[in-house]
């Protein structure tokens, strides 16, 4: 039985180790990590799942980015330990944080991932939103926290503090 909690500073390296376990080696070389460098995550949306013995089963983080001049939440990384996958934990982390994002007044969410997984949460392929290369455009997905929030939002995805 997993319980979702806010990630704290003490959890940081354990979450990093979980991501190292769940993703292919070299994950931080991905272009999405350039958008996170020297930028603080959105702490209210960084959540972890621990079981009753304290074992970390899953984690999700978000970063603020810009698309053109519009503020957007970048979802990820999200990962569930291989021994806990397929039991709904990933879905629980995503649904929990999308609901919190709405409560906090965020309007739209971006991620780079597999559309066959994320469409169940309401993510659809974005057009005209350019992640730093190399990114497969078919994996650039958006979610509208507020109806219509992605309408007319296009351009390059940049770091929030990059002066864009
Ligand atoms: C992707 C991930 C977070 C999903 O978490 P999870 O707890 O295993 O997922 P859930 O239990 O909520 O959902 C399981 C369902 O999603 C499907 N699924 C999982 N990953 C998928 C993918 N990449 N593409 C399509 N479907 C996927 C499973 O087949 C399963 O389908 P079913 O409901 O029809 O049986 C987890 O598998 C993981 O950590 N993977 C490695 C890291 C990763 O790829 N992270 C996402 C980066 S885009």
TrEMBL record:
Known EC number: 2.3.1.-
Record-annotated N-acetyltransferase domain positions: 2-146
Keyword field: Acyltransferase, Transferase
CDD domains: NAT_SF
A GO term for molecular function: acyltransferase activity
Enzymatic class: transferase
InterPro entries: Acyl_CoA_acyltransferase, GNAT_dom
Domain of life the protein comes from: Bacteria
Protein name listed in UniProt: N-acetyltransferase
Organism name: Mesobacterium hydrothermale
């Amino acid at each position: 039985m997993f319980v979702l909690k806010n990630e704290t500073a003490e959890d940081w390296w354990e979450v990093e180790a979980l991501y190292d376990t769940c993703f292919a080696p070299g994950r931080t070389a991905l272009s999405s990590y350039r958008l996170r460098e020297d930028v603080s995550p959105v702490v209210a949306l960084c959540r972890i799942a621990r079981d009753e013995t304290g074992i970390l089963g899953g984690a999700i983080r978000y970063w603020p980015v810009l698309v053109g001049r519009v503020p957007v939440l970048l979802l990820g990384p999200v990962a569930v330990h291989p021994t806990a996958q397929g039991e709904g934990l990933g879905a629980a982390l995503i649904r929990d944080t999308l609901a919190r994002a709405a409560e906090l007044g965020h309007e739209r969410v971006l991620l780079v991932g597999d559309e066959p997984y994320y469409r169940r949460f309401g993510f659809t392929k974005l057009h005209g939103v350019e992640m730093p290369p190399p990114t497969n455009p078919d994996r650039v997905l958006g979610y509208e926290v507020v109806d219509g929030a992605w309408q007319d939002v296009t351009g390059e995805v940049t770091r929030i503090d990059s002066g864009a």
